[in-house]
Amino acid sequence: MATGTLWATAIGGSLAYTRTRTPLVKPSLRLIHARMHAQAITLALLSGAAIYDYYEKQRKSAE
């Protein structure tokens, strides 16, 4: 649920940002870029969660 919310927020934020920065870009190209930005942010979030989980398990097994 949280990942989907982050993804949707990233799409909206990217669309708003590109609309103000480059208003002459086609909407279809804006949507493609927004999707790529959202995927990158989601991948970074999931990678960070996996790394955090790994180190938490390592720390607990060392105790």
TrEMBL record:
In the UniProt record, does the keyword Disulfide bond occur?
no
Designated name of the protein: HIG1 domain-containing protein
Naturally occurring in which organism (per UniProt): Dovyalis caffra
Q: Which PANTHER family match?
A: RESPIRATORY SUPERCOMPLEX FACTOR 2, MITOCHONDRIAL (PTHR28018)
One Pfam family in the UniProt entry: HIG_1_N
Record-linked PROSITE patterns: HIG1
* GO CC list: mitochondrion
One GO BP annotation of this record: mitochondrial respiratory chain complex IV assembly
The record's Gene3D superfamilies line, in alphabetical order, gives: 6.10.140.1320
